[in-house]
Specification:
Pseudouridine synthase
């Protein structure tokens, strides 16, 4: 029978006032809620919010709630929240292929490979054109070895890689090494500390190209409240931007793919936006907002 899938299809078939039953035993295989994770929220933020509401709704303090595959704070899109016995499926769900829409800025790198950290080096980018990108993309298809960003949740002898990266970054901020030395130490640290992982890119396509870059992003009220998550604004640099759709195997770091694409074009690159549009059979179009998920868990 499987877990209940609480998505937009369920809301459409059951009506906008649909609520989950008040006892978790009504769902012997648990519940899976595909959430469209908000920008500037961590995956843990989503779980805390949903778990608090679910525990109160089902009246069970030791209720298990978890997610199947984390998303970076500056990413949006499909985050699978598993409740009850569905948490046993989390590991299997993580194995499924994913699809992303990646926004990539060319001509600059950051230590985190996205906008959580400010630019550490600028590069010439006259060679970055729509035609150049389309010519390079096929070389990224297929099975390959990838080194994850050091700013990642990879475990190194029981320590998260981002903890090591943060120490290196803080050392550079204290003036113990130059920005260039910091960049080299973090990049070489990823190569020395993290093992290469075999990934597979099954599809990659250029969706749009903006030679003058993205406009300044205007944050919503809820995004502005989450000051724990830093967002660097590089819009005044007018770096060329590309929207690239990527279908890939589990374990693929799109931030690392952005790095590799920049190197293939002879420049630097970093993510400026990221949306997970699909995780296995779950699409972002059918995912619920956090508010919609809370509503179906409210009596």
């Amino acid at each position: 029978m499987g877990p209940l899938i609480a998505d937009k299809n369920l809301l459409l078939s059951s009506g906008k006032d649909f609520r989950l039953g008040g006892e978790i035993d009504l769902y012997p295989e648990g519940v899976i809620i595909p959430i469209d994770k908000p920008y500037r929220w961590t995956s843990a933020d989503v779980i805390r919010k949903i778990k608090f509401t679910a525990v109160r709704h089902f009246g069970k303090k030791n209720l298990k709630v978890g997610h199947a595959g984390t998303l970076d704070p500056l990413a949006t899109g499909v985050l699978l929240v598993c409740i009850g016995k569905a948490t046993k499926l989390a590991e299997e769900l993580q194995k499924h292929d994913k699809e992303y829409l990646a926004g990539i800025s060319f001509g600059a790198t950051t230590p985190s490979y996205d906008l959580e950290k400010p630019i550490d080096k600028l590069y010439p980018h006259d060679m970055v054109t729509r035609e150049a990108i389309e010519k390079v993309l096929p070389s990224l298809l297929g099975e390959q070895e990838q080194i994850a960003p050091l700013f990642s949740a990879k475990s190194v002898d029981g320590v998260r890689a981002y903890e090591i990266a943060r120490k290196m970054y803080k050392a550079s901020q204290r003036g113990e090494c130059t920005t260039e030395e910091s960049k080299e130490s973090i990049d070489s640290g990823a190569e020395d500390i993290l093992s290469r992982q075999t990934i597979r890119i099954t599809g990659i396509k250029l969706e749009d190209f903006l030679p003058d870059g993205l406009p300044k992003r205007v944050l919503t009220e809820s995004e502005s409240r989450n000051l724990r998550i830093n967002v660097t604004d590089n819009s005044e640099l007018h770096l060329p931007h590309a929207d690239i759709r990527v279908a890939c195997s589990k374990g693929t770091y799109i931030r690392a793919l952005a790095r590799d694409l920049g190197e293939a074009l002879g420049t630097g690159a970093h993510l400026d936006t990221l949306e997970r549009t699909r995780s296995g059979e779950f699409n972002v179009e059918n995912a619920l907002s956090v508010e919609e998920a809370i509503a179906i868990l409210s009596k």
